[in-house]
Model the fold of this input.
Amino acid sequence: MNARPHLIARVRPELARTERELSCHLFPLPADGPLPASLRAYCGFDIVPGQAERLDGPAGMPCMPCLLQAALAS
Ligand SMILES: [Zn+2]
Done:
């Protein structure tokens, strides 16, 4: 299986204003090359890396649309 690399991240709690921002989103990463300036989650949510915290695993509330899209994409 050739799983696409992805990143689990959420907006830092002190910056999050909505439930969606507090959810853990899944971001597909480029297979190689530098990290883009802004990342788009599977669900379409955009995040700026400086405003996000990277998680080593799912924590808190997962974003359901992201989970479903990631499962379909892998
Ligand atoms: Zn999401």
About this structure: The longest helix spans residues 64-73. Helices lie at 19-22, 64-73. The two ends are 8 Å apart (CA to CA). The first strand starts at residue 6 and ends at 11.
